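Hello everyone,

My group is preparing for a crystallization screen and wants a predicted model to guide construct design. The compound we'll soak is S-adenosylmethionine. Before spending weeks at the bench, it would help to have a computed complex in hand. I've included the protein sequence and the ligand's SMILES below. Output in structure-token form would be ideal because that's what our pipeline reads.
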Amino acid sequence: MHNAEKIKNRTYLIFVDHRFDKLAESEIKQILPKSKLIPYKVRNNKNMDTIFFKLSVKDISNDISEKIENSNLSFVDFILPIDIILDEEKIDYKIIESSIMRIIKKNQLFKLEVKKVDRLLSESAKSIEVNLGNDLEYLGYNIDLIKPTVIIYLIILKKFIMIGHVNVNMQNNYTLDIFRESNKEGIRRLNRAEFKIKEAVQFFGLNLSKYKLGLDIGAAPGGWTNYLSQQGLRMVAVDKTRLDYKKICNNKRILVLTDDEDLDKTKEIIKEKNSGLEVAIKHISKKLQYNEYDIIHIKTSIDINNKTKIFKNFEKFDLLTIDTNTSPLESTAIVNSLTELLNKNASLIMTTKLVTKDFNKHINTIKKELYKNFKNIKIKKLPHNRREFTVYGTYNGNNK
Ligand SMILES: C[S@@+](CC[C@H](N)C(=O)[O-])C[C@H]1O[C@@H](n2cnc3c(N)ncnc32)[C@H](O)[C@@H]1O
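Reply:
Good plan to model first. Here are the tokens for the complex, ready for your pipeline.
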């Protein structure tokens, strides 16, 4: 099973967000024009955002298998190569376990993920997962929930059980935890937005230890700023709305710079909402030593025609993030208006709202506008994106 050369006929499950099924299908068709994609119709699971296609590839060569497994597709959430399909009426632990034992070796650290899709069972997926895990451990297999090298997926469908595995070193290409997001790093999370930034960093392969200063536009309530700050970046967060200072403080020194006319009133409100918390609050026009702070919240909006001079007081930024919930045209206009603040090769992570269903038009707008100043542009529908895409790029240093 480990050796792709032996496989003559391979099945893959291709998981996609149902909103982007057509785009996902055409992406797969582009890399594998002769493949046959069969949408799986889920019967009794209306809450599933994810749907999947069954892809069968005959006489698969190494080349094709690599193409699929290493593909960086924008609209596919997850590709699971299937090792074994069990045509079982009931959940037979012995049969499932012996199948898993054909996929992994005893010295491999692995984790099991069980997903019950449309089969009615009294036992929960979690309970099946725990029972299988216990049995396999008893048989001498090595389960590691924190740092596995292999993840085995058991997908329980109405008439079949599909078992597949992925190697964890492919994490940059795959977003593995589509079914259940586990908080492995023990970082305190503020909101769903934090998952989006984490997924983007992982998917686009950013090594955050190399970044020093980040500019986060549309930062409130502070999920992205919090995550990036906890990863060691000094952050300048921009939003007219207040951040959740109490949740993001975590031993970080916070400064709020405001353009509000009534500074005293702003101070009062922030102090009231964050009792006992030390947050420095100053007027935006005040000259200060910014280096004393880990997070500087500039309480204003970016207006592309009326650029705020304050940003020029900082060193150039290595990372620009933007999550303003605006259309592709508006989001890219904000980004392009800020390029003079960036170091050459600074990274961009931007989400942009899909204001209509004409996704192709949005993709073209994003590319056309961003290519003026950025290169290596990649667009991805990440698992925690709802009606939006996440976009990555590197600043080319030309400032158009
Ligand atoms: C989806 S929320 C951002 C969530 C945030 N990334 C987080 O992790 O908590 C969008 C925010 O963008 C802000 N926003 C929209 N347009 C903006 C602009 N032109 N300049 C600055 N902030 C803006 C809104 O005030 C709102 O708080």
